[in-house]
Description:
It is a single chain. This protein is an all-alpha fold. The chain is 70% helix and 0% strand. It contains nine helices and no strands. The protein is elongated.
Amino acid sequence: MLRESQKKGDKKVRRSAVDLLDAGLNLLAEHSIQQLTIDALCKKLHVTKGSFYHHFKGREDYLERMLDHWVSDWTVESMRQADTAASPVERFDAIVESSNNLPHGPETSIRAWAQRDALALHFLEKVDSMRMDYLFDIFNEVSGDSKRARLLSRIGYSLFVGTRMIAPAIVGDERDALIKLMKNELYKMPETRT
């Protein structure tokens, strides 16, 4: 969605910083971080480099803000939405649903990038920690056993990451069956009423 109007008779469009950040994450769905250049981003969005530099100091500033945007919009916002559910089981179902709706490509690229880059690693560790802590709170509330909850949060999060990293990714009905099995057999969570 455009955040500013298009100029008449010109293919170049004014975009907000958020438009550029979202576009970078979308480019990461198909390409590596090395291919996420200012030129590629501007070409994808039909904007000038001047438009890019209006919002960002340069590529490093852009990449840091893109990673921060990934944290706030993909992790914090998903948790905030899941927190509206009444019970821990409903919060678990909500966070699983939200997580399953996230595109796989950007996170896979960020994980590969973090293997070689301290900035990406910093944000990835932050996201991983936040997500595991969120699951811990749910499992702790359900089980009342903090040691078990810590282990379950690690297993649950490993499942989330693993289903995305396996080639091809485990998706759809197969992923849903896997989550249901884990929820019933390992997590020992009651079924929610629909």
